[in-house]
Specification:
374 residues, alpha+beta, 54% helix, elongated, PepSY-ass_TM, transmembrane helix
Length: 374
């Protein structure tokens, strides 16, 4: 009786949210390598003056008219695009001139439209109605994942029975048998990444889910946007410089001794009178805190006065950061992104096969009822 109840709840939920889940799945797959594609597109716009060499960090700061409070992100490879960040906004800079790069408008517009559909069912901007439908459908999708696992489990655990829903089968008699096999096979193999993607989506969509995440860490959710954690203490921030500061290029060279495998260095630009500067040496993809080493350095001597590898944030904040980038797979690097993209494609197939199976079942029930009434 329980299995029958779960089955019908699963079927009804699929019909209610199926179209919206399909949109999220397809757009999610299209967004899989958004960051890499946009970076490649921007890199193609870099114009190299004849005979020019990449500028130093200090020259780029001067050319870009950077100011305290911004963050300069320098790539390990000379000649790669440099970024100047102010909060969530980032400007790409030509490493040879320090000029702002216009980027690739077509690529940015495409991904902007796809992301709009993914989040709000609107390619032109935020829609409260679309946001409600997406968030609700994602919550229903979480139920579909959980109930789907329950329905997948065989009544008897025999390999001859299990393999029918675990492996693709050939020479099936009709489309219904194929859809049934595909629905079970794609469902079980994509179960774990889909659960992570959908669960983290719920956490980002609903304040109550976000509060539960922080509660699991024994914390209260922050009010507003939390500040990025820093290893620089208030006393360090209040200390004034005494002497001639080293160049940022020289400071990065010293910081390399602390993190020789770095891929990018992020310099949090201090005020002119500040004695210390924070430099983050990142050996990951930019969102993996475990591969980041934060250094507080004396601007005059280059001495490292404080250091931390990994995030200085609280457990709750780290879990929230995990949710943000596990949703896209970026937390686990290129492999994680690939798995997330494949899981999104699997979700699209699950919607198609599930709806096809459901329509066939309801059609059979309708025909049977009509024949009984005749």
């Amino acid at each position: 009786m329980l299995r029958k109840t779960v089955f019908w709840a699963h079927l009804v939920a699929g019909f209610v949210a199926g179209v919206f889940v399909l949109i999220m799945a397809v757009t999610g797959a299209l967004l899989t390598f958004e960051a890499q594609i946009e970076d490649m597109a921007i890199a193609q716009t870099v114009m190299v003056p004849e005979g020019a060499a990449p500028l130093t960090a200090d020259d780029i700061l001067t050319a870009a008219n950077a100011s305290a409070g911004q963050t300069l992100v320098i790539p390990r490879e000379a000649g790669d695009v440099v970024k100047l960040q102010a909060g969530r906004q980032a400007t790409s800079l030509n490493p040879y001139t320090g000029e702002a790069l216009a980027g690739a408008p077509g690529v940015a517009s495409f991904f902007g439209a796809v992301e709009g559909l993914h989040r709000w069912l609107s390619a032109s901007g935020r829609s409260d109605t679309g946001s409600f439908l997406v968030d609700t459908s994602n919550l229903i999708f979480l139920f579909l994942v959980a109930s789907g696992l329950y329905l997948w489990l065989p009544k008897t655990w025999r390999w001859a029975k299990v393999k029918l829903n675990l492996l693709f089968r050939r020479n099936l008699p009709n489309a219904q048998a194929r859809d049934y096999n595909w629905h079970h096979v794609f469902g079980i193999w994509a179960l774990v990444p889909l659960f992570v993607i959908v669960l983290t989506g719920v956490i980002m969509s609903y304040s109550w889910a976000n509060a539960l995440l922080y509660a699991a860490a024994g914390e209260e959710p922050p009010q507003g946007r939390p500040r990025a954690p820093s290893v620089m203490t208030a006393d360090m921030q209040a200390t004034f410089i005494e002497g001639q500061p080293m160049s940022y290029a020289a400071l990065v060279a010293v910081a390399t001794e602390q993190r020789p495998d770095w891929r990018r260095a992020a310099i949090a630009l201090p005020s002119e009178e500040a004695a210390y500067v924070q430099v983050t040496m990142d050996a990951g993809n930019g969102v993996q805190s475990a591969y980041q080493t934060q250094l507080v350095m004396d601007r005059v001597t280059g001495d490292v006065v404080a250091a931390r590898t990994g995030s200085a944030a609280s457990l709750g904040a780290r879990l929230r950061m995990w949710a943000r980038f596990a949703h896209t797979g970026q937390y686990y690097g290129i492999i994680g992104q690939t798995i997330a993209g494949l899981a999104s494609l699997a979700a699209a197939i699950l919607v198609y096969t599930g709806l096809a199976l459901g329509v066939r079942r309801l059609s059979r029930m309708w025909r049977r009822r009509q024949s009984q009434m005749a």
